[in-house]
């Protein structure tokens, strides 16, 4: 769950890094290469109720990322080819 001090983009970066077992600065690509971070922040703001029912799903860094309006971020690794 995010707090007011922690924006959705930082939460996504931390969750993807954790799923890949690397530090955030070790990710091969930036979040900007997968999704517009400003748009994501507008869709899923930290203040909760205004984002109720919103779900955003995208792929990044070999993962599927789902961000729910509740603040929940779910990361799943994509199958290797």
TrEMBL record:
Residues 6-75 form the Halobacterial output domain. InterPro entries: HalOD1. This is HalOD1 output domain-containing protein. It comes from the Archaea.
């Amino acid at each position: 769950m995010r707090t007011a001090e922690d924006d959705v983009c930082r939460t996504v970066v931390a969750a993807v890094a954790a799923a890949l077992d690397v530090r955030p600065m070790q990710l091969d690509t930036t979040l900007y290469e997968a999704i517009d971070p400003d748009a994501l922040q507008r869709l899923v703001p930290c203040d909760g109720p205004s984002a109720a029912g919103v779900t955003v799903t995208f792929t990044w860094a070999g993962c599927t990322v789902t961000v729910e309006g509740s603040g929940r971020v779910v990361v799943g690794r994509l199958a290797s080819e």
